[in-house]
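Quick one:
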Amino acid sequence: MRDDSKGMSIHSTSDLGIATYLLTVGVELITTTPVPHNPNHLIFHFKEQENIRRLISDYLNGDGLAPARTLFENYRALRSIAFNTRNH
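Output:
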């Protein structure tokens, strides 16, 4: 967790699976930035919320639940952002 320039608490991850799951379960995506020294990958920055660590743990343990269609739509959307960032 870190704070941005506006004092908002941010949780960041470069893991596309975690980012997709967080977006699907309603965590607000704030922005993306390239990974330092690896511009082909992105860091996804989410608005920190009280239960974000539990959500990530649930995802990693296989206990997280999310609507499949929304999950795949969000996966495609985040992949598209990553692809478009690489090509610009």
